Amino acid sequence: MKVSTGTSQGCPSLRSLSIKVGSMLCPCSSPNKYKRLDAKLERKMAEAKRGSSGHHNFKSLDSIIMKFPQFKEGLKNIRAVFEQYDEDSNGTIDREELKKCLQKLQLHLTEEEVEDLFHSCDIDGSEGIQFNEFIVLLCLIYLLKDPSSSNTTSRLGSPQLEATFDTIIEVFFFLDKNGDGKLNKKDVVKALNEASPWEKSPSHITRTRFKEMDWDRNGKVSFREFLFAFINWVGIDTDEEMPLAGT
Prior knowledge:
The chain is mainly alpha-helical. The chain contains 13 helices and no strands. The chain has helices at residues 12-24, 35-51, 61-65, 68-76, 78-85, 95-104, 111-121, 131-144, 152-156, 159-175, 185-192, 203-213, 223-234. It is globular and about 45 Å long.
């Protein structure tokens, strides 16, 4: 799938999703709802990038898009776990179901950590974690848990899932040019133009891509915000990926 750099306004369905979620995450209605978790993620991502070998699998946006089918296949494997713990089969996992899930997976989190994760991933405020939100939640747990004290992969029972999460983290590293654990517009512009600097993306395309990630409109993109946008780009519940640029 080739990234287009045409002059349209991008995918309407993704843009409307971004607007919808952006209003849900509006800081004016919940001032510091996500601040604590996002600060932890920012530190963790910055540390992880500093500790990486410097070798990266991705050299351009095209190289990421070529991996979309593998991302999609790897993330779909989480559905069986989701359905197992959605005990009432209503399409969401509530707090009690989530606690049972974490206990079964031997992921020992404090009550505060569980609440932070639940609120940060329940983006529509439904008091239940839907499938896409569950993917984000598991990835955040995988990232935040100390590997020396918790072998997350074996407890999740999926080396493939570990590899998928590691590769998604690499995508974030590719976009995070200054290595501070969050994305800004300058990072995204540089990443979009990295492969062909002589064929720069139109500025409105770059702005659209950034807005799709920056749901709370604060000019910065946390790893959590990036995950939600990335999963929608991959199209986990659809047959085709969403375009990353206008056509």
